[in-house]
Specification:
Number of helices: 6
Radius of gyration: 19 Å
Structural class: alpha+beta
Bound molecules: heme C
Distance between the termini: 53 Å
Number of strands: 5
Number of domains: 1
């Protein structure tokens, strides 16, 4: 009797994990998804870069404020400017802001990018088809690489400005986003596109 109960209990999470893993699939290049995904992620990159350059020219400390206070706000703004229903997020396995923590599908995509980068391959994008709360979305993932300008805030802690590092640590006590080198895979921009927009 006891054994059956334990057996039944054990099988529950397994059943659940099976149904959930069916909710995501990888799809081949879809021109419409790529077009929307590229447009939206480029718009976000341009917006963030403009603000960053403006702020860095004043002081790196001010730039931290921009990233800290404005990154999510600017992402929302771009989201409102593009077609209704599209959602944008920046995420990473080594995230700085806990609000950017990847969900399980994002994590899966991030690991794929990380592995292909390690193999020396260059994956230009990934597309998932995801079922969320009864609605189907395409998720377009655009990888982000570390450039020189990023090292100031995401580089080797020993090479970073001490005061800047202290400021980052005070804002993000659990920061995971340092220790990168030029060309490293940093994370992605994820653009969610409702299925009906692609038809
Ligand atoms: C002036 C400092 C600064 C610079 C320069 C900078 N970042 Fe960041 N970055 C931050 C801060 C602060 C956050 C957390 C802010 C947020 O998104 O809420 C962040 C967050 C991110 C995130 C979102 C995931 C996470 O870790 O929370 C990505 C992706 C990212 N940065 C990539 C880059 C890339 C790529 C560059 C270079 C092109 C760059 N950053 C340059 C400070 C910086």
């Amino acid at each position: 009797m006891k054994k059956t109960v334990v057996g039944a209990l054990l099988s529950v999470p397994i059943l659940f994990s099976c149904t959930h893993s069916n909710d995501v699939s990888y799809v081949d290049d879809n021109p419409k998804v790529i077009e929307i995904g590229e447009n939206v992620s480029k718009k976000l990159l341009k917006t963030l870069k403009e603000e960053l350059v403006k702020a860095i020219s004043k002081s790196p400390y001010e730039a931290i404020e921009v990233c800290n206070k404005k990154a999510l706000q600017l992402t929302k703004k771009v989201e409102e400017e593009v077609d209704h229903g599209i959602e944008i997020k920046r995420t990473s396995l080594k995230y700085r802001n806990p609000l950017n923590k990847p969900d399980k599908y994002e994590k899966e995509a991030l690991i794929k990018f990380e592995n292909t980068t390690k193999e020396g391959k260059n994956l230009k994008h990934l597309i998932q088809k995801v079922n969320e709360n009864g609605k189907t979305y395409y998720r377009y993932y655009k990888p982000l690489k570390i450039q020189n300008v990023c090292l100031m805030c995401h580089g080797e802690p020993s090479k970073m400005d001490k005061q800047l590092l202290a400021k980052i640590k005070s804002l993000y006590p659990n920061d995971k986003a340092t220790g990168y080198n030029l060309g490293d895979f940093r994370g992605v921009i994820r653009v969610s596109i409702p299925e009906e927009m692609v038809k």
